[in-house]
């Protein structure tokens, strides 16, 4: 095609800074025009998605957790919007209580889109669109994907709620490029994305990824790949992330089981914002979550991520998450295993750690939960990192920093988190779960 090879460190139109965790692409002049338009649209959407009052978001989530765990409501369980949930169902956090106790969940799948909390709370995915049933686990044609395959579903223009006909093992030949207004819903089947490329959410908005197993993801060599119904182009080698959120907004990743990817399990980079990662189970990995890819990319200051009700389990080493810039709410997660540290960062991110359980490893040199990179204490002492209601076990300790007088919210407006002693209950069903028709999930 006469394409000139370029290694792109993707930057927004008018951005001067480059992003080191970027995607390499080969492209023609037409490709450049297509991607520049997507970048410009994504930049506008991301700026609009940024919440100037993040403490309102953290308060709202904590309020819902209190309601969900209120003993007085055990007999008549209620979801986020007041609906009464009856029957033998155990849903232990407010996101799950919103939908899991409904025996007709499979007839009303899109109800899930009303259940997100945190910074990704406005994500609706493919709600209101058609249901697309994936019937074919193959992934053989990157330019003209076969109808019925997952790749064919995610490139469509219109909103879609994507479900699976049966249990599937999908080995992606190249990274799966997902367009806006999509939900990938694995409920009712055991769906594994494994032994190939991962999921790429790049310069789009409004995507839900729900109830999948994502593991053993490899770096792939790239090639001609269709990124929408009206565009394909030549992309270079992928990094090998399980799920990459790149320059995107209104993203919700929920009930995913993840392990053993070549690079990270989840990356949120390139000024992505309005993201919630919830109810996931992470195991067997070194560098787990990366929020912000390089210290030089200051546009990540608009990044806002909620990390809630996740279980960080066996075989994890570090980066749970590792943050740059932005605001990260780490709330009611269970850190049963970490070998080096749990929460780290550089470039002055704001980190609010609330109601988590941190269990330190045996190694006496790895008791500290936190880690600051590339900065002397004289610099990082000004970064706002707070621990509230966290439970520290086996000698774990969280080093706070920032102005001692700094408060996220105080007085009557402050809603304290549920304490770390509650996380075994709140994270009880983390990871992909088995759901059967006509039964609570």
From TrEMBL:
Q: What are the EC numbers?
A: 4.2.2.2
Part of which pathway?
Glycan metabolism; pectin degradation; 2-dehydro-3-deoxy-D-gluconate from pectin: step 2/5
Q: Name one GO molecular function term.
A: pectate lyase activity
Spell out the reaction equation it catalyses: Eliminative cleavage of (1->4)-alpha-D-galacturonan to give oligosaccharides with 4-deoxy-alpha-D-galact-4-enuronosyl groups at their non-reducing ends
* Domain of life where this protein originates: Eukaryota
How does the cofactor bind to this protein, according to its record? Binds 1 Ca(2+) ion. Required for its activity.
Cofactor field: Ca(2+)
What residues does the Pectate lyase domain cover?
A: 167-364
Q: Name one Pfam family in it.
A: Pec_lyase_N
What are the entry keywords? Answer: Calcium, Glycoprotein, Lyase, Metal-binding, Signal
Which InterPro entries does this chain map to?
AmbAllergen, Pec_lyase, Pec_lyase_N, Pectin_lyas_fold, Pectin_lyase_fold/virulence, PEL
Instruction: Give the residue range of the signal peptide.
Output: 1-22
Family (UniProt): Belongs to the polysaccharide lyase 1 family.
What is the protein name stated in its UniProt record? Pectate lyase
Record organism: Daucus carota subsp. sativus
Biological classification of the source: Eukaryota, Viridiplantae, Streptophyta, Embryophyta, Tracheophyta
């Amino acid at each position: 095609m006469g394409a000139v090879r370029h290694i792109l460190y993707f930057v927004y139109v008018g951005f001067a800074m480059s992003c080191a965790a970027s995607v390499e692409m080969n492209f023609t002049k037409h490709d450049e025009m297509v991607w520049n338009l997507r970048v410009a649209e994504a930049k506008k959407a991301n700026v609009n998605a940024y919440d100037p009052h993040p403490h309102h978001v953290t308060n709202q989530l904590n309020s819902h957790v209190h309601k969900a765990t209120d003993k007085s409501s055990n007999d008549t369980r209620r979801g986020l919007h007041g609906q009464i949930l009856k029957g033998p169902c155990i849903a232990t956090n407010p996101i799950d209580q919103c939908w899991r106790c409904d025996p007709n969940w499979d007839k009303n799948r899109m109800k899930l889109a009303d259940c997100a909390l945190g910074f990704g709370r406005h994500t609706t995915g493919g709600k209101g669109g058609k249901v697309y049933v994936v019937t074919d686990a193959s992934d053989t044609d990157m330019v003209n994907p076969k109808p019925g395959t997952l790749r064919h579903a995610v490139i469509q223009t219109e909103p879609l709620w994507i479900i699976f006909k049966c249990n599937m093992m999908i080995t992606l030949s190249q990274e799966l490029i997902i367009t806006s207004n999509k939900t990938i819903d694995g409920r009712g089947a055991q769906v594994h994305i494994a032994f190939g490329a991962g999921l790429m959410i790049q310069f789009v908005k409004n995507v839900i990824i729900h109830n999948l197993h994502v593991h053993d993801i490899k770096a792939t060599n790239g090639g001609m790949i269709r990124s929408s119904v009206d565009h394909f182009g030549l992309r270079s080698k992928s990094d090998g992330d399980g799920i990459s959120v790149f320059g995107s907004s209104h993203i919700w990743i929920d009930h995913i089981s993840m392990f053993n990817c070549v690079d990270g399990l989840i990356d949120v980079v390139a000024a992505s914002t309005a993201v919630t990662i919830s109810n996931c189970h992470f195991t067997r990995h070194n560098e787990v979550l990366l929020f912000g890819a390089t210290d030089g990319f200051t546009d990540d200051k608009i990044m806002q991520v909620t990390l809630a009700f996740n279980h960080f389990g066996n075989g994890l080493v570090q980066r749970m998450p590792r943050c740059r810039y932005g605001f990260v709410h780490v709330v009611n997660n269970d850190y049963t295993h970490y070998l080096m540290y749990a929460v780290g960062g550089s470039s002055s991110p704001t980190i609010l750690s609330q109601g988590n359980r941190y269990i330190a490893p045996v190694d006496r040199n790895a008791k500290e939960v936190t880690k600051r990179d590339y900065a002397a204490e004289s610099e990082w002492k000004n970064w706002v990192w707070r621990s509230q209601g966290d439970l520290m076990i086996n000698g774990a300790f969280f080093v706070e920093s920032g102005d001692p007088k700094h408060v996220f919210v105080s007085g009557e407006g402050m809603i304290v988190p549920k304490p770390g002693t509650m996380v075994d209950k709140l994270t009880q069903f983390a990871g992909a779960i088995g759901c059967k028709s006509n039964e609570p999930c």
